[in-house]
């Protein structure tokens, strides 16, 4: 996900040419720089917090007249819908591989 965001940034801001920065060096190109590590930790934390908070966030019922606040129903609906996508996107693969 992080690489997608950085690729999007390069494609739109720099015309798809990530090496066209002053000095020919891209700040986040080397994955061991402090800014890159901070970006990784912050984004991984954000995705994990989102995963946890979705178990406690109310859901608008389809007719838009009421909000479901029952934790058991929220958990069941989340597990049946977006949980797998959120879980896979929140795995910190940079630390695993």
UniProtKB/TrEMBL annotation:
It is a multi-pass membrane protein. Keywords: Membrane, Transmembrane, Transmembrane helix. One of its GO terms (biological process) is regulation of membrane depolarization. GO terms for molecular function: voltage-gated potassium channel activity. GO terms for cellular component: axon; dendrite; HCN channel complex. Transmembrane segments: none annotated. Residues 25-95 form the Ion transport domain. It is found in: Membrane. InterPro entries: Ion_trans_dom, K/Na_HCN_channel. Gene3D superfamilies: 1.10.287.70. Its main location: membrane. This is Ion transport domain-containing protein. The lineage of its organism: Eukaryota, Metazoa, Chordata, Craniata, Vertebrata.
């Amino acid at each position: 996900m992080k690489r997608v965001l950085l690729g999007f940034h390069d494609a739109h801001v720099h015309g798809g040419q990530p090496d066209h920065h002053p000095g020919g060096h891209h700040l986040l190109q080397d994955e061991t720089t402090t800014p890159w590590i901070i970006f990784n930790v912050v984004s991984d934390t954000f995705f994990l917090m989102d995963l946890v908070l979705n178990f406690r966030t109310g859901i608008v019922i389809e007719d838009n007249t009421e909000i479901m606040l029952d934790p058991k129903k929220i958990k069941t609906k989340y597990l049946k819908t977006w949980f797998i996508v959120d879980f896979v996107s929140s795995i910190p693969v940079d630390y695993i591989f």
